[in-house]
Amino acid sequence: MATIHLTDRYFPLDDAIATDDEKLIHLLTPYYPQVVDSEIMRQSQEDSLHVHIIKPTSPETGLKDRVGGQDIAVEEKFQSQPTSTILPDTLHYKAVGWVRGQYIPSVDDFTTGILLLEDGVVASANLLVSASRFLKNRKGLVESSQVWIVYPHTRPKDPPYFHFTIRGISLPESKAKLEDFIERVDSFQVDGLVTYSNNETRMLGVRIYRNIDALTRPIKSEEKDNFFLLTITGVLPGEPYGQFWSLRLTRKGEQLVLEESTLVAQVFPPKKPKKNTKKQRRSKRKAKSKTPQ
């Protein structure tokens, strides 16, 4: 497995792609379209393969430039790097959970309605096509409480604070596994990119992107911003900004609460400490001068 360094972002890359011009250009084109007509140069250094993408000669300057003014280097890694820096779209995003409650469809549209959960929490909801077809032929299931497989969305500012997209109904495989089935209710698995954290308020913001295989087809520009944000109650160690985490959550009332966490990868470089502004330095000097000697 290799690692490609693209400007200030990094992601793992298969060795077969790192050494194949056609596959490498196909991978990079969505991010740097100019690589299509560029020259590819490789240089090996101490078990590492550096790949430089050089734009064609400019008619105005007669000079060759590296794409974006940056080196694109591919370094072979002979051991797994669980915290290597990688692009968001090379990871598998997930946000799924189980809740128990009654689905009450709206009068005008069976596919939209509310979920009345057993603890009284009300969430807006909609049915996926597969779930809608299943329930339309089994409307008795809508008249009672069920365990639903859902994709969660949070709305921290405006009630209802939850919106659930219903994928289907969950049923126990057997009576022997009934206890495990009951314990699953109100549990969620979220794998995503942390873009906000506040230890004082114990709040996290986790982005969930649509999973796209960049090698199967070019990524459209609008798809790069196709994500939603989950608000989670909890604290992660260190500086989690820009890190991809696998999180196990529990729904408690109108909050998703962090129970367990595993760091998967560093996607973006950590935030640099903010320098004191002139105003902050001036305030500190004033406070110091007022301190009794």
- Write down how many β-strands occur, each being a DSSP E stretch of 2 or more residues: 15
* Rounded average pLDDT: 74
Helix content: 10-25%
Approximately how much beta-strand content do the residues carry?
35-45%
Radius of gyration (Å):
25 Å
What does this structure look like?
The structure is a single chain. The model is unreliable at 57-84 (pLDDT under 50). Strand 3 and strand 4 (48-54) form a beta hairpin. The chain has helices at 15-18, 21-28, 129-136, 178-184, 221-224, 278-290, and strands at residues 2-6, 9-13, 39-45, 48-54, 72-76, 94-105, 112-117, 122-127, 146-154, 162-169, 187-198, 203-209, 227-233, 243-252, 255-266. The protein contains 6 helices and 15 strands. The longest helix is centred in the last third of the chain and has 13 residues, at 278-290. The protein is an alpha+beta fold and 293 residues long. The strands form 3 sheets. It has a 5-stranded mixed barrel with strand order 6-7-8-10-9. The chain folds into 2 domains: 2-81, no CATH class; 86-272, no CATH class. Helices cover 15% and strands 40% of the residues.
Task: Kindly summarize this structure in a few lines.
The chain is of the alpha+beta class. The protein has helices at 15-18, 21-28, 129-136, 178-184, 221-224, 278-290, and strands at 2-6, 9-13, 39-45, 48-54, 72-76, 94-105, 112-117, 122-127, 146-154, 162-169, 187-198, 203-209, 227-233, 243-252, 255-266. The protein has two domains: 2-81, no CATH class; 86-272, no CATH class.
